[in-house]
Amino acid sequence: MQNVKKYFTEGLIQFTILLSLIGVRVDVDSYLSGYFSPLLEINVGPSSAYIQTPFHNLRDTWDGYSVHPKCLELDYFFASRRLLDEVRALGSPRFPTQLNAWLVHQVPDSSEFQEPSNNTSNGADINSGLTLESALDNANHSDLLPEDESCLDRREECHTEIQEQCVSGPYIVTGACEDKTDGKDDGSDEEAEEPAPVTQLVLSSTLEEHLLDDPQPPSSLSGSEDAPPTTLDWSHFLSTDFDDLDPLVPQRLSDLDSDISSAISQNVSLRDAMVRGAGPYDVVPHRDESGSVTQQRGPYFRLESTNSSHSDSSPGVTAGLATLPFSSVCNATRNVTSDSALGGCLDEAVFDQINLLGLEGLDSIDPQLLGSLEGIDPRVLEDLDSDSGLSLENSSRGPTSPGTSEVSSSSSSFCEDEGGATGYSSEADSLPSKGIADYDTWSQVDLSDNVWHDHSYSSPPYFQSSAPTFSHKAIKEEPLSEEEYDRDDERELSRDELRARAMCIPFSAPQIVSMPVEEFLELLEGQALSSAQITLLRDIRRRGKNKLAAQNCRKRKLDAITGLQEEVERLQAQRDTLLREKQHTAKALGATGQRIEQLSRDVLARLRDDLGQPLTPDRYTLQCGASGRLVVQPIRRPVVTTTTSSKSDKRKKEKKP
DNA sequence: TGGCCGTGTCATCTC
DNA sequence: TGGAGATGACACGGC
């Protein structure tokens, strides 16, 4: 029973859509007890959930029907979703048909590229039946004219898609691609080369077959003579209620033109078009004259903009309101069947979801990327945020570093950045991370790449042997090799080193500097040192730390200077840019002022006063009111009072008292 | 030989 | 209150 009901409803849906295509409106809601009510919504017009415009107010009373009195936004939105599911259940969506609709839609546009003779036989007839969009269509064509070979290439790609889809027709072939039309100029031989000749096309509707047999262009099917009453109602509606929509749509026709032109210029790819928000749908209102009243949802995305183009031709209004199908041609030619009609709605719904899926796919990528990034060392990621090597240095120092707690992060890391400039503590900090064993090597191994200063500290070899009781972690590192001992002996020792040696202090300067305060205090207390030795140890430690601090301070200073220089350059560039913009604005303002002045003169020259004399700019001026009205006003010259009169007045005033 | 630069060191301040 | 860091100022050596 469920299947029977399903088939019944499906057939009813198709029949309803077919009727709606020919202008007969059927309220399916009353038959389908609400479950298939979305069909009515689809028939009625665009979903306000998509358009986000107040046009649903008009839609509610459109054609005398009260569509959905409550919760229009959500209802339409979910209705579209339900319809999508239903159509999916009905069968596979026919995207090729929809694609052909797009291509057919391009027929009048490409007619500009065609020979006049082609227009007479193919797509030109489509244009012949158009009345509403003549001006807009011309604008589109004018926009298309400058299009170069890229557009042709796009059309060739489009043509390829047609062939691949194996669903094509004579109008599509001739209209979609210019090269194909050229081939038709040469003769009908080109058609033989078509991989999908017309006779081999499989069409899903009898009407389509009729169209194929009938050389008459698709638009003629829904010509003005056979236009259903609904189309007339629409025309009447559009012509009468348009002014009411004016405040709702402040955009101008030029905006629509630009949109349409852009949409046409990038028309070929269906995916692109769908992603772009169904831009080509804006173009479609051309086919409104065809009379098919299928409530395509084409204008959903662009309803706001299309409605704004209210001026003369009002094709945008046609499209926007309704719903008047962009694909009237395709509807008339191919999508007249229920499948096609559903496909018109379905395809958008499907592609909406595809777009959503695409976006969701992006979201789904992130975890993958994150997952792939999991294998990366977190420190590397931290480096990306680190503007300097300071934090890196801290992380690389490792727990075995004796100076981790003692030496500040900035100071120790700075020495690493400097390539081991002259900081012993820096070397002491960096050594463990580099696998260098002992602090005694700190001054020789790495530092001297760039700078080797005499003031650097080093501990003599005998310090190593003479400090067996020192429990610092650094001492546990690998001992110095004999070569390193020799080099340490050979190199010139600093003053503190010499003093330490002279006073038989059993610790190296790096050890003294890098060890924590607690250990240093324990060292002073537990080693039974003399006061001179303690003072020297404190001085060594103080000077060593101050050295690192000075290095850090200098580096920060350089960084600050560099940053300020960059800031200065950036601000100078910004200043130059602003100056250029100012000049351009001044030029534009001057040109506009001159143009306004010229226009004022022209207007005044055409006007006459009461005496029949032409108005001169010296006496009259044009004022533009807030309402946009242009008013001619006489120039009021200020009364010039001479100095003598003012003086006389003063005298009079003085005499009066 | 004087200037520049890098570095170490001191004095001072702040935390 | 002492330690540590920051910083200006100075000295020194190398180029």
Summarize the structure.
The protein is mainly alpha-helical and 657 residues long. It is 62% helix and 2% strand.
Any chance you could write out the topology, listing elements then pairs?
Blueprint: H1 2-21, H2 29-32, H3 37-44, H4 48-51, H5 55-60, H6 72-90, H7 95-105, H8 107-110, H9 116-121, H10 124-128, H11 134-144, H12 149-165, H13 170-176, H14 178-186, H15 189-192, H16 206-213, H17 218-221, H18 229-240, H19 242-245, H20 253-265, H21 270-275, H22 279-283, H23 303-308, H24 315-322, H25 328-333, H26 338-373, H27 378-385, H28 390-397, H29 409-417, H30 424-434, H31 461-466, H32 482-490, H33 495-502, H34 509-514, H35 517-526, H36 531-606, E1 620-624, E2 630-634, H37 643-655
Antiparallel strand pairs: 1-2
This protein binds a DNA duplex (15 and 15 nucleotides) through residues 406, 408, 410-411, 421-422, 451, 453-456, 494, 517, 542-543, 545-554, 556-557.
- Label the overall shape: extended
Number of E-state strands: 2
Would you identify the regions where 5 or more consecutive residues have pLDDT less than 50? Answer: 25-81, 89-491
Overall average residue pLDDT:
47
Count of DSSP H/I helices: 37
Helix % is 55-70%
Radius of gyration: 42 Å
User: What can be said about the biggest beta sheet?
Assistant: 2 strands, antiparallel
First and last CA, distance: 114 Å
Percent strand equals under 5%
In the sheet with the most strands, the strands line up as: 1-2
Task: Give the structural class.
Answer: mainly alpha
